[in-house]
């Protein structure tokens, strides 16, 4: 079975697979995240367009986890990380999602080490490009970074100046 884009979803894999992986991928692709969307809309005051964009980025990120090597360290964009945090707070729903999507509970390990964070971001971008045939969008950096040494006004990842992580915003 070759997973192909058949609706308006931006998710489209570029290699064939079947069986349980296809079922899990399709589960992630079609999962109803409306509870999480309402939570992040209230918490962060995001407009509907941003909520939908981040939801699709989260779908892609979870799909990357599903299809990544077991020991591969992946990091989400800042907005997907906020989405993930909101989802985790819905513990029963998140646990059921993980069981169905991965067959195991996907733990979230915050990472403060800049080197490991960069490795995780690079791995996420590489895997996203491989799986979906397009760059992973890290399009929603904070416009008012106030990380130490940054000076403000630049791209920011969780309080760390993106320039210090050697990151660039992908379009």
Task: Give an overview of the whole structure.
- The protein has a two-stranded antiparallel ribbon with strand order 1-2.
- It starts with 19 loop residues before the first helix and ends in a 10-residue tail after the last strand.
- It is globular.
- 49% of the residues lie in helices and 2% in strands.
- It has helices at 20-30, 34-44, 48-67, 78-89, 91-101, 114-132; strands at residues 156-157, 160-161.
- Helix 1 (20-30) runs antiparallel to helix 3 (48-67) and helix 3 packs across helix 4 (78-89).
- It is an all-alpha fold and 171 residues long.
Which key terms come to mind for this protein?
mainly alpha; 2 strands; 171 residues; disordered N terminus
Give the biggest sheet.
Answer: 2 strands, antiparallel
N-C termini distance: 30 Å
Order of helices and strands: HHHHHHEE
Average pLDDT reading: 74
The total beta strand count reads 2
Helical coverage, percent range: 40-55%
List low-pLDDT spans: 1-15, 138-171
Structural class: mainly alpha
Number of helices: 6
Query: What order do the strands of the largest sheet run in, or round the barrel if closed?
Result: 1-2
Beta content comes to under 5%
Overall body shape: globular
The radius of gyration is 16 Å
